[in-house]
Write a structure and sequence with these properties.
The protein is α/β, with parallel strands linked by helices. About 45% of the residues lie in helices and about 15% in strands. The structure holds guanosine-5'-diphosphate (GDP).
């Protein structure tokens, strides 16, 4: 039987990146013909190059998964580059999509777009209910503008698009570079290296109190593919996550159990905590995706990721 993706032409910006690779693999295994624009051929920060890409490789569905992003460290170090790259690239990709008459755009957004000081799980209707957390405002705000652009482009040009809000990802192929990594990749590297060196102490940033939600990247790719098929409401973003909150302290305990590390933890409170809680409400996701929830729990996903990192350490560490 033919599925939704068989014979579909799909373009995935960022398809050679961390999440993008997992997404491309999923789409291809479901029969899609996937094109991945590479930076050396198409510069998505220039509109003419973006349009050239979509005219030379016409597609039915465009996943905009390219982003310049990273953990709390890079948000402090490179706020301007995060701002300019993501804002301009997003605006160009949508403009080029309508000029090239793409049928549907799936924009990949971020939980950093949510108000940074709300209590409880983050619901889609609260996306504009307050300012982003100061630690991630440049990335969060620029990605959120895609939701605004999507509504405007539907109204004026009839372009169909959806906006997906992703929680913190981890998994094989992530950035393990200390200056860029998110907490899971950063800590996996620290734990594995401490284990290899027999180090007596590991430094962990902040107080350990912030609560985050983690999703295994291959699971997230599944959800994105499903949303590309089933979700069509341009007026309301859709959260993609597990809905399960884990404190950084609990993450540290889980990693310690997974690796057998027996040294001390040094909490460095001079490093930022970021938002105290960032956990998505996933009720609408479950309904929209036919009851889907991420199949890989944190313990299993961490074990797989640690095994991958140990086996690919040199290559993983060399990647930006
Ligand atoms: P965020 O979700 O945007 O805040 O980004 P991160 O994934 O970078 O950080 C999540 C939390 O993990 C923050 O509270 C950090 O202080 C904490 N954390 C603890 N150790 C580390 C580390 O070595 N690297 C990073 N990136 N975060 C860390």
């Amino acid at each position: 039987m033919k599925g939704f993706w068989s014979e579909k032409r799909v373009t995935v910006t960022g398809g050679a990146g961390f999440l993008g690779r997992h997404l491309v693999k999923r789409l291809e295994s479901h029969g899609a013909t996937v094109f991945v624009p590479r930076q050396r051929d198409y510069n998505l920060i220039a509109l003419d190059s973006c349009l050239k890409c979509l005219l030379e490789h016409p597609c039915d569905v465009l996943f905009h998964a390219a982003a310049y992003y990273g953990g709390i460290g890079i948000n402090q170090a490179e706020p301007a580059k995060l701002y300019y790259t993501n804002l301009v690239m997003g605006a160009n990709v949508m403009e080029a999509a309508r000029l090239a008459r793409v049928a549907k755009v799936v924009n990949i957004g971020t939980a950093c777009s949510y108000p940074g000081y709300l209590e409880g799980r983050l619901k889609e209707q609260d996306l504009w209910a307050g300012p982003c957390h100061a630690s991630v405002v440049n990335y969060g705000l620029t990605k959120k503008m895609l939701a605004v652009q999507g509504e405007a482009y539907k109204k004026q040009y009839g372009l169909d698009s959806i906006h997906l809000i992703l929680t913190n990802l981890y998994g094989p192929g992530d950035s393990y570079n200390t200056d860029r990594s998110h907490v899971v990749a950063a800590l996996i590297r620290k734990w594995v290296e401490a284990d290899m060196a027999g180090a007596p102490e590991i430094e962990v940033w902040g107080t350990g109190k912030p609560v985050r939600e983690f999703i295994y990247a291959p699971d997230c790719a599944d959800a994105i593919m499903l949303a590309g098929e089933k979700y069509n409401d341009v007026t309301m973003p859709l959260n993609i996550g597990s809905g399960i909150g884990t404190s950084i302290r609990e993450l540290v305990e889980t990693l310690t159990a997974a690796t057998g590390y027996r040294g001390k933890i040094a909490w460095n409170a001079d490093k930022p905590d970021g938002a105290m809680m960032k956990v998505l409400d996933v009720e609408r996701m479950r309904q929209a995706l036919g009851g889907w929830t991420p199949p890989t729990d944190l313990r299993t996903g961490l074990a797989k990721t640690i095994a991958w990192y140990r086996a690919n350490k040199a290559q993983a560490d060399a990647k930006w």
